[in-house]
Amino acid sequence: MHCYILGLSAFYHDSAACLLRDGEIIAAAQEERFTRKKGDSSFPKHAVSYCLQYAGIGMDAIELVGFYDKPLLKFERILETYLAIAPRGFRSFLKAGPLWVKEKLFTDRLLRESLGGYEGSLLYAEHHESHAASAFFPSPFEESAVLTMDGVGEWATASIGLGRGSDLEILSELRWPDSLGLLYSAFTYYTGFTVNSGEYKVMGLAPYGEPRYVDLILRDLVDLREDGSFRLNQKYFNYLGGLTMTSEAFTELFGGPPRLSESPLTQKEMDLARSVQVVCEEIMLRMARTAHRLTDSKNLCLAGGVALNCVGNGRLLREGPFENIWIQPAAGDAGGALGVALLAWHRHCAKPRTVTAGVDSMKGAYLGPGFTEGEIEAFLQRQGASYERLDREELFGAVARLLASEKIVGWFNGRMEFGPRALGARSILGDPRSPRMQAQMNFKIKFREGFRPFAPSVLRERVSDYFEMDVESPYMLLVAPVKKERQIPMSGAERGPWGIEQLNVVRSDIPAVTHIDYSARIQTVSPETNPDYYQLIRSFEELTGCPVVVNSSFNVRGEPIVCTPEDAYRCFMRTHLDFLVLGPFLLGKAEQQEWKEPTEWQHEFQLD
How sure is the predictor about 607, in pLDDT bands with cuts at 50, 70 and 90? Predict the structure, then answer.
């Protein structure tokens, strides 16, 4: 008789569900992938249904359900904050209060009703404990320091812990309202991007700027201590009781109002992005040194939204005190569903933990829905699509030739990734050697800001031939420089001002994945976790001598990564993608009929 544990995160942003079977992670997915609402915060009913369907069970088979934070403790923090700043936060309280009273204070009842009248055990973990568990328990380490950093959970905004075997202890916390995540989000808001989803845009914009505001931030906004703890001067922020992230004092300090969304980017935004990135990295490094001092461990595990800052992670690896670093691929709130499920297994059920040295238990993060050849072909036939079925080797060779001829290919293969990164299951692929590829993919396919860099997927055994890195980075969460011998130095005329005009300067022999500071956000690919993607890149290497491809998430700006064959085909037909691979089927754009929204076929996951 198997023991099934269901983990949930919901009601803030990026809701998700995760299912364990006898402690093994067998399925996990974000709700946004099914509803097509980016960052969907609603109860993850489709994600739950998928997990149950994957296991072939109903809710009656679930031993217990875990929820990733403690709503009553969070409400205590919100209420105390409003009382402390009253009457200043009254407008915000009027907006948030009824929602809490109506829904979030009755989370237990809401969860049980949403799970079809579930009457079994329902456990709650603290937010940062869920993050810490998601970082440590799936890691390849028997023992490790654990560092979590995000906006805020209940009271904690960052934590340092120590994991040993099946035990996890939180040793220290940074508490509300001092938050590295919220500091970064304040600059995300001020530079005109969307909070809770646009932070990675700030990180991508940073290399175009100069760190001219660092001293100002550290003088007026952040009282930073040597151990990485800090105080934020709330005079400059408005998130305690307001409806914006920054205050009038922030506007005065930085010389003008926040940038309007979609308005032109200026050098000021680039310099602001660079400055807050520099401050963020310094805080991350100081926190990591403190974690090392408190734990005396050679290993570090990371989670929380700030752990998605792959530039900071790269510095931790190169300059930090730890020999080994492992980062939860679903480091944001979605990963809390996985963390609480593992906490329930190891702490509540008192089950031991088995570690295989050098191998994590995330299965490459390929934990979402997959589709059979029959399901895919049924959709294609209903759609009236033109397609060709190829065997495995024929497919890899054909796609490699297309990439080498600068065609852009949508790649839909196997189970969907869990977390924000496309890792070769739901990816858009291109030739990294092409100096035109970045602009083509940004404007013709992704419909997104031109400054945004693309990531390389590289064969694991060849990573050190192209990048200043000799460790695995399977989840695209580490940034490293391109090897010196592959870089192309800029001429004096090309160097010019350090800004957006340098976007199209060719910087290496893989220019499509080389950012303007000669860095790259790297995914290493191994045959153990994704044999098809690995063999595709091998085929590209055999044809071109290059063991690297451009890997971008299979979506357009503002939409979640595709989940189903229907999602993929829709994205294919609505963009300038040249070819689409759906499992063993290859589709060319020129051979397709005029696009019409499908009405008959829909792959649904129904809650039993």
Answer: very low
Sign for the CA dihedral angle at 73, 30, 449, 515 comes to: positive
DSSP state, 101? H
Residue 334 and residue 16 in contact, taking contact as beta carbons nearer than 8 Å: yes
Strands 16-21 and 121-124: unpaired
Residues 6+ apart with CB under 8 A from 363: 25, 529
Q: What 8-state DSSP symbol labels residue 266?
A: -
Q: Count the neighbouring beta carbons within 10 Å of the beta carbon of residue 319.
A: 11
- The answer to whether 273 and 191 are in contact (CB under 8 A) is yes
The dihedral sign for the CA sequence 195, 196, 202, 204: negative
List, in sequence order, every beta strand (DSSP E) within 530-597.
548-553, 579-582, 585-588
In sequence order, the 6+-apart residues with CB closer than 8 A to the CB of 218 are 224, 279
Give the mean model confidence (pLDDT) for residues 134-158: 96
Amino acid residing at 387:
Y
- Gap between the Cα atoms of 302 and 313, Å rounded: 9
Q: What is the tens place of the pLDDT at every residue in 189-233?
A: 999 999 988 898 999 999 999 999 999 999 999 999 999 999 999
**48 closest CA partner among 565, 566, 606, 421:** 606
Contact residues for 112 (Cβ-Cβ < 8 A; gap 6+): 118, 119, 122
| Contact criterion met (CB below 8 Å) for 218 and 269 | no
Residue with tokens 């297309």: 402
Triad 270, 310, 297: Cα angle to 5°: 135
How many CA atoms lie within 13 Å of 318's alpha carbon, on the beta-carbon side?
14
- Element housing 234 (H / E): none
Judge whether 516 and 208 are in contact, CB under 8 Å. Answer: yes
pTM of this prediction? 0.93
Cβ contact 523:473 at 8 Å:
yes
- Of 254, 195, 196, the C-alpha closest to 221 is 254
Helices (H) and strands (E) in the chain, counts: 20, 21
N-terminal to C-terminal alpha carbon distance within the chain: 20
Q: What tens digit of pLDDT does each residue of 26-41 get?
A: 999 999 999 999 999 9
Report the SS3 class of residue 301.
strand
Residue found by looking up tokens 């508490």 in the block: 175
Label the pairing between strands 426-430 and 156-164. unpaired
Tell me the pLDDT of the chain averaged across its residues.
91
Strands, DSSP E only, in 201-293? Answer: 222-224, 230-232
57: enclosing H helix or E strand: none
pLDDT in tens, 173-194: 999 999 999 999 999 999 999 9
Q: Which residues pair with 25 in a beta bridge?
A: 20
**Residue 5 three-state SS:** strand
> What DSSP letter does each residue of 400-459 carry, written as one string?
HHHHHTT--EEEE-SSPBSSS---SSEEEEE-TT-TTHHHHIIIIII---TT---EEEEE
Select from 110, 154, 107 the least CA-distant residue to 128. 154
